[in-house]
Request: fold
Amino acid sequence: MTEEKRQVSAEDSLIARYFKPLATDPGAFGLIDDAAILSSSGEDIVVTTDAVVEGVHYLATDPPDTIARKALRVNLSDLAAKGGSPAGFVLTLALRSKQDAWLRPFADALGDDARAFACPLLGGDTVSTPGPQMISITAFGRVPKGRMVGRTGAKPGDLVFVTGTIGDAALGLDALTGGAAAAALTDPAARDYLIDRYRVPRPRNALAGIVREHASAAMDVSDGLAGDLAKLCAASGVSAVINAHHVPVSAAAAIAVSAVGLEKLVSGGDDYEILCAVPEQRSAAFSRQAEQAGVEVTMIGTVIAGQGTPQWVDAQGEEVTLGRLSYSHF
Amino acid sequence: MTEEKRQVSAEDSLIARYFKPLATDPGAFGLIDDAAILSSSGEDIVVTTDAVVEGVHYLATDPPDTIARKALRVNLSDLAAKGGSPAGFVLTLALRSKQDAWLRPFADALGDDARAFACPLLGGDTVSTPGPQMISITAFGRVPKGRMVGRTGAKPGDLVFVTGTIGDAALGLDALTGGAAAAALTDPAARDYLIDRYRVPRPRNALAGIVREHASAAMDVSDGLAGDLAKLCAASGVSAVINAHHVPVSAAAAIAVSAVGLEKLVSGGDDYEILCAVPEQRSAAFSRQAEQAGVEVTMIGTVIAGQGTPQWVDAQGEEVTLGRLSYSHF
Reply:
């Protein structure tokens, strides 16, 4: 057989062209093997997996570079909330087409983020699908043995903190899809800010070590603050009282909130902020170290004993009723 | 807020109902967390990821229990070829519907295989898709530090071995889809055997330690023996001479091979057998230990110096020309 007849599969050439440059870790073997090596020296490996589907988690019209960043960052956000340092990721890409105009910016942005977050591509699989495109990522982090921050450790008296601002992404999606927020957002800069927050999460990996040192329980907020807090409380066997007026809101979101209501912000998806419970005696150190790390944290309430859904109260101490807690993709 | 208004998302209840019973490893935290822990004691973690897509890697009419087994086993096959002991897996399930009639046998079969191969479910993500269903699995194995069997170590003089039989799955798919093999397979038992080989791979995990001890290079055969051998040789910077008549063929495949030709068998996908190069002085021990482990291995050729595509020769030493080497999903 001649060399000319040697067939390199389309998948192999696609991987070599777009993704081999991202496989900078020696354990990735330049993507020529079916498997990668994650070396360890006795620490725990944190494993998380999250997929984004076209039309469900991102819009078909979203720029491919933002889709790449979102796919990786939703996983980085999980690692951050668990107190893990990024160690690498594997990628499954279900593609309908393999046009350079989509793949080039996708791969370049993925590579930029892999470098910026020190989370190299270790391997992957590329498959064709006649349906919506999908990017599934499994990401790995490292924590000292036994030190992953779980959901089950929150105790009555702990203070409830959240990073960044809440509801921006839900409003951004609303603006993109012509919802109630769209009409309220007449300021183009505010609109663009919220849309960017929907498309490109800001995972709080700078806070990982601080969460590990101080938090009794933590998770990232991906399906709405109210619902995710309820999950954390249920896992810990506690409840909480949340001061609704303390929930951090961006200036852009503040413009829209009168039109859409608070519920939209605290039950909307895609925040990718960290929610955590911190024992009161550690809260000052937690806040100070977070500030030093450049991550805004806000105390929004208190963990209490009990099994009920967390209570939300306003500045007058009156209960705020939330009709829905979470965004569900189903 | 009353308990009645507490919303458990459809995804959470689906996971609890079908997949929590599979999460038997303590590192899975009963699937209540966003992340899992893979503990380590300084060994290397082998990571592999492979997805199966409805209509591409399996047929929409395939029974759900076989789809589950295939999704996990294609990954177990990679671990086996790399010399790794299974340590666990994470699952991303992109579902169009979530009917119990599909999910119950799927989850039960996945649980059976997870137990049988000692590869527990550690975590996952369930997303909805309007398109074809897809199951993406990332599986983990353990090898002593630095001992993963790669693709790059084959040396001239090594003998080329393959496990099991080759081409059964390609013929099974052909029989299911009314191809040339379908007409030749008048024996229902032979037809059923080949279809089962397509639907349910037999990963050779019993051979993992033996491959690690003796093989200089190895990979699993998933895209056709001829093409995968060419990849292994290219990665190692060598070539090979393969005796086409030594390629192990099942009795059922032998019935069909006259109708479809050898090329169909050695370029068809879905074998999930192990292809490896073994230094000649180790080959007797390799074969003996494989037999003791209950895994059939066949010597099919020799690694030679050179950069060319492996040569295939018949019993008379004449070159066999293969028009295509691999099955490509693209």
